[in-house]
Write a structure and sequence with these properties.
six-stranded mixed sheet; 14 strands; five-stranded mixed sheet
Length: about 325
């Protein structure tokens, strides 16, 4: 199996370590530090506790750290405060352009409807073009930052035509509720919670303009020193996804792991694990959140990483 690194990702970390010619004597990894956000398979894995049980036999503890968004999680990877994490497709591009030494381990299929530009239910704004001169709040450097850029371009606007306000999701929601901003660009489960609890209206999602992949990433030094730990982690991530898929009648509340804005959301595991946050506003045409994000990771697809590579080249050129 050939090696696929950095721009082209990683098909299987263990195989990559072998094909690198890195014959590494496995070093004792006393603690595996995992970064996660308020969504996805890692939330399930943390709640189920199977990873801790498996790694305990190797003398490895697991430490979980929650991050408000992908850019913050990537900063944690870059400075060495965590060893592994999952984030959207945009934050790794900026991190790599800045010199971060990352390995792509696995990814989830695209979920373009799982991020959107939202406006309040009574907003007079009916199209992206009407955002000109308006205040838009978002998490800087995240997937939704790219979504906003693409949506504005698609509507014939420049990025500078709107006034951006950069806030993490919880603070952004507060600003949105107060009416301090005109629109909020956000992802699930915050997106679904706003639709359910605030009756927020979707102006534009990622369909046709932003794929919204999720990538599982590890720091290269940790991965090379502890391939057996990363391999076990990836296997447990896949196993918990398969476990969820095999439980068609089980519905687990995620409020303990995804509190705050998403406190009323839960995981509906009917046929495939999805995030459910209630039904959409009648007549809105929006699908409920359980149809928006798949929770089963798969091996890295070189085509997906080629897209990442193109974005990385663009980011490097813009950095000069």
């Amino acid at each position: 199996m050939r090696t696929v690194i950095l721009r082209r990702g990683l098909v299987a970390l263990f195989a990559a370590a072998v094909s690198f010619g890195v014959i590494v004597q496995a070093q004792a990894a006393e603690t595996l530090r995992i970064g996660y956000q308020k969504y996805g398979t890692l939330v399930l894995l943390k709640a189920k506790g199977t990873l801790e049980k498996r790694l305990a036999a190797q003398g490895v503890n697991v430490q979980w750290t929650e991050f408000p968004g992908g850019p913050q999680l990537l900063e944690g990877l870059n400075v060495g405060s965590i060893d592994f994490g999952v984030t959207g497709e945009t934050p790794p591009v900026f991190a790599q352009a800045a010199g971060a030494d990352l390995l792509y381990v696995a990814y989830e299929p695209p979920a373009p409807t799982s991020e959107a530009i939202l406006v309040p239910k009574d907003s007079p704004i009916k199209s992206v073009a009407e955002l000109k001169g308006k205040k838009v709040v978002l998490n800087k450097g995240s997937n939704v930052h790219y979504l906003l850029v693409r949506a504005l371009e698609d509507a014939g606007l420049k990025y500078t035509d709107v006034h951006t306000v950069f806030l993490p999701p919880a603070d952004a929601r507060a600003a949105f509720e107060r009416g301090s901003v005109d629109a909020w660009v956000i992802w699930d489960p915050y997106q679904a919670a706003a639709e359910k609890q605030l009756q927020a209206r979707t102006l534009r999602d990622g369909t046709g303009i932003a794929d919204n992949h999720q990538f599982y990433l590890a720091t290269k030094p940790y991965a090379e020193q502890h391939p057996e730990v990363i391999q076990a982690l990836v296997e447990e991530v896949r196993a918990v996804g398969e476990w969820a898929k095999a439980q068609p009648r089980t519905s687990h509340r995620a409020s303990s792991a995804a509190a705050g804005a998403a406190r009323r959301c839960h995981l509906d595991l009917n046929e495939a694990p999805r995030l459910r946050c209630g039904v959409p506003d009648p007549g809105s045409g929006r699908r409920p959140a359980e149809n928006r994000r798949h929770l089963l990771p798969t091996q890295i697809d070189p085509q997906a990483l080629e897209h990442q590579g193109r974005d990385l080249d663009t980011a490097r050129r813009r950095r000069g």
